[in-house]
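**Backbone shape codes:**
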Amino acid sequence: MVKTYCMCKEFWGKLFTSGKSPEPASQIAMEPQYNIPKLVATDIRTQIPNDIVDNVMSRPPFVAIPGVVNARDISEHASGSSQSPVRPGFAYRSGALEKVSPEGRVFLIRQLGISVIFDLRHQGERMQSPSPDIEGVQTVWAPYTCTPVPVDPRDFAHGDEGASGYAKMYLEIMKVSAPIFQKVFEHIRDAPREPFLFHCSAGKDRSGVLAALILCLAGSPREAIIHDYTLTRIGMEAHRPSLTKILQFHTGSGAGPESIGMLQLCNVRANAMVGFLPAIENSFEGGVEGYLRSHLGFNQRDLDIMRANLKVPTFN
């Protein structure tokens, strides 16, 4: 069986920029500051202490929607960055919403101003875990263009931390999810005053692909896109026990390509986005803009409007 690692106190101390464990809240004037790059690089088999997860997820860009995991604003402005071209309070991402509490529904509407939710899941997932009916909020869904090519764990075992496997899988997502992606970008173009949220199941892969496309269109730097993606490692900590059980079931005690690939598939690595971003450029003439034109049917004027709306809304 795959060993579930229990990290020592010294390791977690290194996750603080100060190199020290945080003092109790009553003894400090400021919240502890964490080394986020090291934190998000934590192997999925390793638990991140609950107090650290709770603290990080209580701050922007994360938003605490009761009953919803991995929810956050995709704008880096939400966390105080002045480098993000995307305005805060417009585009949110998360995991599935079927367990959203009554308080969470109110939060979505009153605190975030969400008017539209885009469900990126396939029909089978929606039947198994139906989207909640939230009064005053429209849920938008569209079927896949075709049945996705099955994921082969061996594609993630090529010595590049799964980068090539993720590039292949994420390009497939761009193909099969084109109808719902088109609806999201239409919303960005046509409704700049209406904040929206998009989600898949865990808020990792399909949501990660869509977030990357939006951020690329807006002109976000590569580092910001990768950072947004890797924050999912913290956001999905609540799912970690389930993921490790799946991992143990599929890998057993083996060390072959399938076992190695499953580990990379369950992890959240920067290399996934490092491999995916150039794959977009190599697969579509004009990169993200080329994809939006050739596969989603937008023209240059549409792209210019969407880019402007992601930064500063244009009201007619």
